[in-house]
Write a structure and sequence with these properties.
The complex is a heterodimer of chains A (134) and B (330). Chain A has 134 residues and is mostly helical. Helices cover 47% and strands 4% of the residues of chain A. Classes of the chains: A mainly alpha (134), B mainly alpha (330).
């Protein structure tokens, strides 16, 4: 090979870069996130009443969009009541409605958000709930 | 012809994975075997190609001389566009690889009335290419949030910069917009300009369609169809640690995205996309212009058998003397 040294260095750098995730993990498995829904407020509810505003599957995929819409409706349009698909009505408020049940931000919100490196900007304006380290 | 062929090839790829995963339930094939195999083919293919290229001798320095070469001390040398030192070559290569300097100098010839031939600078291809390549790189690096646990801080910073304007939720990434726009531009350029269209082949259209489809499925997945990101990260980490898992609830859109990326992996080493490695091995860019300043020996020179005049005279001295030819040594 001509100029072999330089080419081989380049090839090693390339292989190192593309296999970086494999080397970084070192074959170690990491615990999967497990958001907790066992806050006192939720446990107070009867078994069949433990439901979120919308069905779980919908909340999982669309909660960020919903919160964004809630903000616009409340702050820009002045509507404060959300009528869910099942007809129930809720006050659109992150701190008073969502966080009333899900008071465990660290064990609920952050669990998945940290895992997927998502940093929502809710808490730029809202006050983070005070939680005891447990 | 090439256009339709490429288009329907990409469509066929999508149909294959759709039937394979939704119809035949081949999650293991499309989620583990094909990604592993294609990733391996990607690495081996590129290394093989580069080694093959490295074996080709470059007997003489052929840098393009895009500026004044090194000359007398009072002639000002263009040290970047006509480098004579390694440092100059490194700077020239950096400009080429990172900023596409030679595309920046792209000119367009036009025949005006008169007839007059005029040359003008044209930067659109440079701008489109730069936007495309840089956003592609940023998107690639951003994806590492799904491959690394814990996610390193630089990736988080890059991501927050990318979503700087905080439009909607999930936050709109600027690179997604620019990337799809740039691919569309590069495609339209080929179709609309008649000369470009004339020289465009399936090998030109296919990567554009494939890359567009990858970007488009990614955008669909993030902003519209939604799929379980936590599940996807478990799956990617499973692949990284060689312990594949299939969490419930991962949509078909993810498998389409993954399969198209796998197709790109395989296609990469055997296509024009190899310019990624080739740009570093361009003799017209990576050689210093020291043709006359330094001795360069052709690498395949063999020792030439010579017969000097002195030896010739030794052979024939007596005969030369006898017919009166002057000799140098008596």
């Amino acid at each position: 090979m001509y100029n072999g040294g330089k080419i081989i260095i380049g090839v090693i750098i390339f292989v190192g870069l593309v296999t970086f995730p494999f080397l970084y993990s070192g074959g170690k498995t990491t615990a999967k996130p497990d958001p907790k829904v066992d806050t006192p407020e939720i446990l107070k509810l009867a078994e069949n009443e433990r439901k979120c505003v919308e069905p779980k599957a919908y909340m999982k995929g669309e909660h960020m969009k919903m919160l964004n819409e809630w903000r616009d409706w409340v702050v820009r349009d002045g509507n404060t009541i959300y009528t869910a698909t099942n007809g129930k009505q809720y006050t659109m408020s992150l701190q008073n409605t969502c966080m009333k049940c899900h008071s465990n931000k660290k064990k609920f919100c952050d669990e998945c958000h940290n895992y997927t490196a998502v940093k929502p900007y809710c808490w730029d304006c809202h006050i983070e709930p005070k939680e005891k380290e447990s | 012809m090439g256009l339709l062929f490429s288009f329907f090839t990409v469509i066929a790829l999508i149909v294959i994975v759709f039937i394979g995963v939704n119809g035949a339930n081949l999650h293991y094939l499309f989620g583990v075997l094909i990604p592993y195999a294609t990733f391996l083919a990607f690495i081996i293919g590129i290394v093989y190609k580069v080694v093959q290229w490295g074996r080709i001798p470059v007997p003489f320095r052929i840098p393009t001389t895009a500026g004044q070469e090194e000359s007398f001390p009072w002639v000002k040398q263009n040290k970047i566009d006509n480098p004579s030192t390694s440092l100059g070559v490194i700077i020239r290569m950096a400009f080429e690889v990172l900023l596409f300097r030679s595309l920046f100098r792209n000119t367009k010839a036009e025949l005006r009335e008169g007839p007059k031939l005029s040359y003008g600078s044209t930067k659109w291809l440079w701008l489109g290419g730069l936007a495309f390549h840089w956003t592609f790189l940023i998107i690639l690096i951003r994806h590492f949030r799904l491959f690394l646990e814990p996610v390193p801080v630089p990736i988080k910073i890059l991501e927050s910069l990318d979503g700087f304007f905080q439009v909607g939720a999930p936050v709109l990434y600027l690179t997604d917009l620019i990337f799809l726009g740039a691919v569309t531009f590069l495609f339209l350029r080929r179709v609309i300009i008649p000369q470009m269209r004339y020289i465009s082949l399936a090998a030109d259209y296919f990567p554009l369609f494939l890359i567009f489809a990858i970007g488009f499925t990614g955008v669909l997945m993030r902003y519209f169809l939604k799929t379980d990101v936590v599940g996807i990260k478990q799956m990617t980490l499973g692949l990284i640690t060689f312990k594949p898992v299939f969490p419930e609830g991962i949509g078909i859109i993810f498998y389409i995205h993954l399969f198209l990326v796998s197709a790109l992996f395989v296609y990469f080493p055997m296509s024009k996309l190899m310019h990624m490695a080739g740009v570093f091995l361009s003799p017209t860019r990576n050689l210093a212009n020291n043709n006359r300043a330094a001795m360069h020996v052709n690498p395949w020179n063999y020792p030439v058998k010579v017969h000097t005049y002195e030896e010739y005279e030794d052979d024939f001295r007596e005969k030369m003397k006898s017919v009166g030819i002057p000799v140098e040594k008596e």
